[in-house]
Write a structure and sequence with these properties.
By secondary structure, this protein is mostly beta strands. It has one domain: Roll (Pnp Oxidase, Chain A), CATH 2.30.110.10. It has helices spanning 46-53, 85-95, and strands at 8-17, 23-33, 36-42, 56-61, 72-82, 103-108, 112-119, 127-134. It has a six-stranded antiparallel beta barrel. The longest helix has 11 residues, at 85-95. The radius of gyration is 16 Å and the shape is globular. The relative contact order is 0.17.
Length: 160
Amino acid sequence: MVVRKWPHVGWAFIATLRKDGAPRLHPISVVQAQDRLYVIIPHNSPKCADLLRDGRYALQAFPPSAGEPGGEFYLAGVAERIQDPALCQVILDETGVRVEAGDVLFELTLERAMFTYLVAEGTVDEHPVHLTWPAACSAGTSGDSGDSSRPPVAKSPCGD
């Protein structure tokens, strides 16, 4: 698979956990800089409060439009608040995206990822293929935290 670098990766849905433990779903724009994924969220957003309290998230990218190549992408991990003006400047320099006053910057650390695409699309043999891997084999991620209290990830096509 070829990985291309886009300053604005695109739109996705991010699932967070409300204070009462119930899931909450939000549309969000994802930014890529320094081979890492970030989200910039207004401080008064419910999703910001959720991530500040409990950083666990799941993210499902919007599927491509009909006729466009690609597939669906799912990520899960912990969103970590970043308070580094130098990194905000790097993000602006690399992507043109500014972290405004009142916004909160989070890095989306990765614990697991899954890419799904269709084989033989539009035929009777059409079926999905799911590629899964843990962050330890994914380039440009924060990597494995080594925290054994976190749930294990699926076996990886990377050979893990």
